[in-house]
Amino acid sequence: MNAKEKPGLGRDPSSGLNKQKINYQQDTTLDQFHQLLLHAGHRPTKEGKWVCANCPPQKPPAMSVGSEVYFCHRCGTGGSLITLKKNLGLLSGHQWTKAERRLHALRQERIERELQNFLSWLNSLRREYILMFRSAFDVETIGLSLGRAMLAKGIPVDSNILQVAFDAATDGETFSAFLDYLDARENRPKIFEIWRARNAA
Question: What span, in angstroms and rounded, lies between the C-alpha atoms of 159 and 140?
Answer without folding.
Answer: 14
